[in-house]
Structures are given as structure tokens and as C-alpha cells.
Amino acid sequence: MVEEEEVVIVGAGIAGLATAVALNRLGIRALLLERAEDLRATGAALTLFSNAWLALDALAVSHKLTSIYTPVKRELVTNIQTGATQEVSFTGDGPRSVHRKSLLETLANELPIDTIRFSSKVASIETRTQENSPITIIHLSDGTVIKAKMLIGCDGVHSVVGNWLGLAAPVNSGRSAIRGLAVFPQGHGLNHEIRQFVDVGMRAGFLPLTDKDIYWFFVSQPPPNGENFAGNPKLIQRELLENYGKHLPALYLDVVRHCDLSTLTWAPLMFRKPWDIMFKKLRKDNITVAGDAMHPMTPDLGQGGCSALEDAVVLGRHIGEVLITKNGKLDSRDIGEAIDGYVKERRWRVTWLVIGSYLSGWAQQGGSNWWMNFFRDVVFYWFLSSKFVDAAHYECGKLPSVSFSSESKSSSKID
């Protein structure tokens, strides 16, 4: 038996959920296929800059999070070797760090109850032409077959859909990250500001999410035996406290000691080579990708989740504009036009973010040469960092209003 769906989205992460919300706002149903058994909150938390909040505004959900999380006004960066601390101020409404689970649940709660299908792993993808219109056939590992008129891959760094499109596999940046959430039941008493500590080949930091929760991270070259403790949170914590991070300030180490081990992860930092994004096909027939499936990047600009939210709104906007020109009737032959507009708008934007993220990480974790220290402490923090922060001053637009007559609504499905 073959199931039929209007739109199928692979992956119920930030990009997938946000894209489903955008389409739902346009009156288009999407089926989300998630291989995990429930919403995954790997990474514990993430920082959302102004561009992400504008995207959440467009999705009409930002108010549900801004009432919980406080904006950050400054960042303090301490050089471990010299003890010198530099301050980076955020103008306007600064970034806010949020629990990843809260963001995912906020987006999921905007969708009809039957939108997400968990434990659904894509085995293969094929395309056919039916009545001069492209149709996608998705085969799941449990034998389920789904016919869709549009497929959007939001399935992360190792995307099945991205691989089908011919995108090259992401590459290892040569660095790895340990992340976790520290919990202080009686309150941590720290200022609501970002603290970073940099040294040769490593960068560590933390940021309070609430009065009791702190998000922390440690980024460095991967340890020789990293693969041996990647799945053992307690061992990761001990190695960081007693070995890799033992020279870090007592304040930071105390945060690590308070970590909720269920949130602690270690993973290599991956990115897609920018020329693959610039020159490879990001759309074939009515199939495209968004979020990490399109543009995995290192976390050094804090733009991974932000750009995924941008993707969702931009794709929804282009689909909505086609809906309007067709008076609410979107034929599957018109979907390619919408995807082309989306790809054209996103390609250079996300290429720049991938490049900027990589260079930011390289500058902040450079070698011990005097010129690298000069570049990091003077050129980067005093000049280039502000340029990279400008990447957050970006507006992805708003979803169009697609209110049509009852006659149009009755036939506004993608067909």
C-alpha cells in the first residue's frame, strides 16, 4: 500500500519543525518523518541572535520564548596565558540562549497532533513523472512507501536527502566540542553574560540560561582517545576536569562539576565545504534541503540554529508567493519555481556563514605564535568579530497572507 502526502519533511529538528510550522501557517499540511523515538535535544542549548528571533516572529512563536529567556548585553573573553580580559558588547536586543528542548517543543506544539511520525527511517528515494508533474517516492526501512509532491530534507549533517541530491559529505574541522547543561537547584548567582576562556588550541565558555541553568562548552582538537569516551558522559566530565581543562578558572570548572550528565555530549565539529554549497545542486525536481542538511557549519558564530530558522521562513515565503499568484492553487509543477527562488536567496547567505564560522574558530583557537595571538586579540576581537556579529543583523522576511475564498481553499492543496 502506498501512502500519499502533499509535502514530506525528513527530520524533526529545528529546520524540519520550523519548516512544517511555516507551511502550516500557509494552510499546507506536511508530514514530518523523524528517525528517533521522540524529539531529540542533543546539544542541550543554543544561542539565538536577532536574525533567529525575527524568523520566530515570522512563525508567530517568538513571544513564547522571549518571556522565559533574557537577552545578553555583553561577552567577556579571557586569555588564559596572559589573564587579560576583553569585553564585547551587544547593541540593541542582544542574543538569548534557550534550552534546545524548549525551542523544539514550542515549534512542535504549533503543529497538528499527527504531523510528526517518529521511528521513521528513510531507506531510499526515487522520483517519477506523473501527468507531466514530478512525484517523489520515499521508501522507509519498515517497508512503508510514501508518495509526495514535495520532499524537504532537514535530516542533519549526514543527510540522506542531501546525499541523494549529490552533495558531498561534510568534512571534519579538526576540532571537537563537549557540551552540557549545568544545574544549580539553589541558583548559580552569576551575571547574565557570556564568559569565554581562550588558550592555544582550545576555547571554553558558559552562559546562564535561567537563574538555575547554565549552558557550557569546551572546544579543542579531538583527544587521541576521544572515540573511547564519546558515549560515556561521566568519563568525558572527568577527563575535562582532570586533564584537558584542568588549567581553566575554578569558576568554569565548578560549572562543569554541576553538569546534568544526561545532557553532556562529545562530538567532532563538521562543516560542508563552501564551494559545495555554492556550486552543487541544492534542488532536483521538487526536492531540496534546509538547515544542517544544506549548510552544516562549526558553532563559532552561533548561526547554525539561527540559519535553519531563516531557511524555514524563506522557503515558506517563496511557496506562499506562488500560492498567491495561483489564487491558492499550487500545482506540483509550480513547486520547482518556489524552490528555485529559495535556493537562489539562501545559497550565498549560508556560504558566507559557513566561511565566517570556520574562520572565527580558526582565529580564536590559533597557535602559540606571537602573530596568531596578535591576530586573535587585536585584529579579530577588536575588528573582525564585529563584522561577523553583523551576520546576525539579517531579516529573512515574513510569511505572506494566503487567505482565499472558500472555493479556492477547497482546492488549495498541492496537486
UniProtKB/TrEMBL annotation:
Q: What PANTHER family is this protein classified in?
A: FAD/NAD(P)-BINDING OXIDOREDUCTASE FAMILY PROTEIN, OS04G0423100 PROTEIN
The family annotation for this protein states: Belongs to the 3-hydroxybenzoate 6-hydroxylase family.
Its domain of life? Eukaryota
Q: What does the record give under GO molecular function?
A: FAD binding; monooxygenase activity
| Domain FAD-binding stretches | 6-324
Q: Where is the signal peptide?
A: none
Parts of the chain that traverse the membrane? none
Q: Which InterPro entries match?
A: FAD-bd (IPR002938), FAD/NAD-bd_sf (IPR036188), MOase (IPR044560)
Establish whether keyword Membrane is in the entry.
no
Q: What is this protein called?
A: FAD-binding domain-containing protein
- Keywords recorded for this protein, A-Z: Monooxygenase, Oxidoreductase
Q: Which organism is it from?
A: Dipteronia sinensis
Query: Gene3D superfamilies from the entry?
Result: FAD/NAD(P)-binding domain
Q: Does the keyword Oxidoreductase apply?
A: yes
